[in-house]
Amino acid sequence: MRSLQLDRSALYQQRELSAGAYHLAIGGLLLYGFAVNALLCLLFPNLALYVTGGGMLVFLLGYLVCVALSVMLSSSPNAVVNFIGYNLLVVPIGLLLSISVSGLSMQTIQSALLGTGVFVILMIGASVVRPEFFLSLGWTLGISLIVTVIAELVLLLLGFATGWIDYLVVAIFSLYLGFDWARASSYAPTARNAILSATQIYLDIINIFVRLLSILSRRRD
């Protein structure tokens, strides 16, 4: 999902939004996505039992199909189609979060939410102050993420502990959050760009939240 193609110039698409409305649209889309996630967690509290009880293959196939369709729809020049693609990402992630929080205490979930909120405020604030710094991190962050994912897979296969990688992933996606916000601010303020920017920022925040859940749940064990 990091390869979403955003419109870089207003020369190719008329500016549909003011700068303020553009950033409000991104914020609104993020809040919408998180509200859908919370609703799905409330509606499907026992999804983890279904998945572990034999529904893993069905769930994974459905998840992969939705993500693939989301990526395909993101390439459309139509903002309505992009929004449908956004939902095809938000819904399966919401179901995945329902599994992730299953069995965790409310205190752990609230602490992870609070920590995520702190990272969001700090990184977006830093991105507004120093956008050029975050924009310079693109290749570095991409390579760091790929190396981290590969290292985690290798360590898991070899049976080594990988808990420390959660901290590294939180750091990488926190910087990605600043990068994606700075990049979103550099694009033409169109409805399509608002949706695709919100998608990338949404994924940054979800990754931070999930890894914080993992860190906090280990500490409380």
Question: How is this structure best described in words?
Answer:
- By secondary structure, this protein is mainly alpha-helical.
- Helices cover 81% and strands 0% of the residues.
- The chain has 8 helices and no strands.
- The radius of gyration is 18 Å and the shape is globular.
- The model is unreliable at 9-13 (pLDDT under 50).
- Please tally the β strands and state the result: 0
Q: Percent range for helical residues? A: over 70%
Average pLDDT works out at 90
Uncertain stretches: 9-13
Rg (CA only): 18 Å
How many alpha or pi helices?
8
Q: Strand fraction band?
A: under 5%
Class per helix and strand makeup: mainly alpha
Main sheet overview: none
Q: For the terminal residues, how far apart are their CA atoms?
A: 33 Å
Instruction: Tell the overall outline.
Output: globular
List the helices and strands and how they pair.
Elements: H1 19-43, H2 47-74, H3 79-100, H4 106-129, H5 131-135, H6 138-158, H7 163-186, H8 191-220
Helix pairs in contact: 1-3, 1-8, 2-3, 3-8, 4-7, 4-8, 6-7, 7-8
Question: What are the key terms here?
Answer:
8 helices, mainly alpha, 221 residues, globular
Provide a compact summary of the structure.
With 221 residues, the chain is mainly α. The protein contains eight helices and no strands. Helix 2 runs antiparallel to helix 3.
